[in-house]
Specification:
single chain; alpha/beta; 9-stranded mixed β-sheet; two-stranded parallel ribbon; globular
Length: 220
Amino acid sequence: MSRTVIIGGHGKISQILTTQLVENGDEVVSVFRNADHSSDISALGAEPVVCDIETASVDDLVPIMEGADAVVFAAGAGPGSSAERKHTVDYEGSVKSAAAAERAGVSRFVQVSAMGIDGEVDTSDDIWAAYVAAKRNADIELRETSLAWTILRPGGLTDDEPTGMVTLDTETERGSIPRADVAALIAAVLTFPETAGFTWEAISGETPIPAAVAAAVSAG
């Protein structure tokens, strides 16, 4: 049995991941900012922790992470949020979470990032530029930590039924992927310590998730 802390625990991917981990017999600590969502999380079998990643300090986060085997950072300011919140949630939230994990002695850290953030950015859209910068810089900062990190960069997210099949590589073509398959991919990555140190893009494909992960590790 492992204990996983999910930051951004009320998000769609996080709730699906929580269900998958709990069904596997694992313990899940779900961190979210809206106290009204506590009953939703409890119903999934996770331990609810109300904490606003945007305003929390590293000191606030350390006790939440102590005793955990892994941290999953899946928080995001979300559609319609300001450029400032892209920075405070998607970037600063990640940096604080990683720092807290280090201090709490949790080495495993999986970050849900975004596809296509290393290339040229359309700076005419301030919100989009802020989002890309936040995600890219969060990934850069994470790679500089002592954590056993894995960065997943899914394509366009859908609520379609999961297929259990993906294309996983350091760079893929543009595409979409069901949120449930992203959750399953996170769960698979958590199962294999060999995935530490990799950054992968992920879209729907023709390879079963466990096999895709194994092949991506082997490919280096």
